[in-house]
């Protein structure tokens, strides 16, 4: 497993990489739950900028269940921004995310790590069909920024979403 240093403490990053956070900035006071709330707002808005700005410059965003032909991970804030901009630009032509619901947060022994279950409720443009995309994400924060995300979205794996 990769390790990351945060505040002088060696932290497990769920298989990530080795790096060091340097200077703290004005976002350092954000807690993982604050980041999760902003993450959900960015999802509803399909805002790649909003999502990317929650991440450290050297963050890793992984998709263990991703559709073939897409990257397994994005490395760095700008790759996260570009990747989600591309994916969500295509998605916005077909669906509108209306809500993140059924959020269940599982805290861990590391206060900077959350395991989160949630569902994205969306409406297909053109026929107003409602779909639900279940997901589980593991987020790791350090100094008020996301440093590692593992995204187990059912929607990235298969198109057979269940109806809302």
Task: Describe the fold and architecture.
With 164 residues, the chain is an alpha+beta fold. The chain has one domain (25-163): Nuclear Transport Factor 2, Chain: A, CATH 3.10.450.50. Helices cover 21% and strands 43% of the residues. It contains 3 helices and 10 strands, in the order βββααββαβββββ. It has helices spanning 32-45, 48-52, 77-92; strands spanning 3-6, 9-12, 19-20, 55-62, 73-75, 95-107, 113-124, 130-142, 145-153, 162-163. The strands form 2 sheets. Strands 4, 5, 6, 7, 8, 9 and 10 form a 7-stranded mixed beta sheet that branches. A 3-stranded mixed beta sheet has the order 2-1-3, with no helix packed on it. The protein is globular, with a radius of gyration of 16 Å. 25% of the residues are buried.
Largest sheet: 7 strands, mixed
| CATH topology label | Nuclear Transport Factor 2, Chain: A
Gross CATH architecture:
Roll
Output the number of helix runs.
3
* Helix coverage percent: 10-25%
- N/C terminus separation: 38 Å
Structural class: alpha+beta
**CATH class label:** Alpha Beta
Q: Give unreliable regions as ranges.
A: 1-5, 7-25, 156-164
What's the helix-strand series?
A: EEEHHEEHEEEEE
């Amino acid at each position: 497993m990769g390790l990351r240093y945060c505040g002088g403490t060696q932290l497990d990053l769920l298989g990530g990489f080795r790096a060091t956070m340097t200077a703290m900035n004005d976002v350092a006071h954000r807690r993982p739950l604050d980041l999760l709330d902003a993450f959900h707002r960015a999802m509803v808005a399909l805002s790649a900028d909003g999502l990317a700005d929650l991440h450290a410059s050297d963050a890793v965003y992984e998709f263990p269940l991703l559709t073939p032909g897409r990257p397994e991970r994005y490395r760095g804030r700008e790759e996260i921004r570009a990747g989600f901009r591309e994916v969500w630009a295509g998605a916005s032509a077909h669906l509108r995310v209306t809500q993140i619901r059924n959020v269940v947060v599982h805290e861990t022994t590391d206060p900077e790590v959350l395991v989160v279950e949630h569902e994205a409720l969306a409406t297909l443009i053109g026929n107003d069909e409602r779909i639900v995309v279940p997901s589980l994400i593991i987020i790791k924060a350090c100094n008020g920024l996301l440093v590692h995300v593992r995204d187990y979205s059912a929607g990235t794996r298969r198109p057979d979403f269940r109806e809302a």
